[in-house]
Amino acid sequence: MYNTEKPNQKDLPSSAQLLRSTALALVAAVAILVAVVLPAEYAIDPTGIGRVLGLTEMGEIKGDLAREAERDRQVDKPSEGRSGAIDGFLGLFLGTAHAQQAWTDETTFTLTPGEGIEWKLTMKEGAVAEYRWFAEGGRVNFDLHGDGGGKSVSYEKGRGQTGGEGELVAAFDGNHGWFWRNRDRGDVTVTLQIRGDYGALKRAD
């Protein structure tokens, strides 16, 4: 057997000391939760410290990424989707009302999964350009917008699309056009056709 000395009662912490230590630990845990964990994980910053330390921005980025991933997951649900071949056919079918007319410009490009690209038209305020585009092999997200002279505008956005058509009316002098990103699982080929009142069709850097 081992002989051990019985601790002296005076050397043991009192109940009051134990309660004080527990209270201090609880206060410290709450402070860390409010000042660090909530801003960094959920962008909740009641004290403002998270914003100063850059933790709130981290939480906002995490939230945006989580929401985008959820939207992409919803788009990819089999119950909502169609096969890539059918999507490509339907995208090709869009805009047949103008098929008999010639397009001034046409460009085709392929996007790998996750890749994005931007094409712009130089246009004067009030100028009108007709367009149609279609994706083959999958679906893309797009943002039709414009910028110039310190101004910017968003005309239309879409997720999980295989095509679109319409008229682009320039809200001001500047560059107006599309940003596409491939959110599908394979390569997607996009074709853009344009005609109307614009200066040039160019790929934005």
Task: Please tell me how large the radius of gyration is.
Answer: 29 Å
Count every helix, treating DSSP H or I runs of 4 or more residues as helices. Answer: 4
Which geometry do the CA atoms define?
elongated
| Uncertain regions spanning at least 5 consecutive residues | 78-82, 93-100
How would you characterize the largest beta sheet?
5 strands, antiparallel
Sheet with the most strands: spatial strand order: 5-4-7-2-9
Number of strands: 9
SSE succession:
HHHHEEEEEEEEE
Q: Average pLDDT value?
A: 81
Characterize the structure shown.
- With 205 residues, this protein is an alpha+beta fold.
- A hairpin with a 2-residue loop joins strand 4 and strand 5.
- The chain has a five-stranded antiparallel β-sheet, with no helix packed on it. A four-stranded antiparallel β-sheet has the order 1-8-3-6.
- The chain has helices at 15-42, 49-53, 55-75, 84-93, and strands at 105-111, 116-123, 128-136, 140-148, 151-161, 163-169, 174-182, 188-196, 201-203.
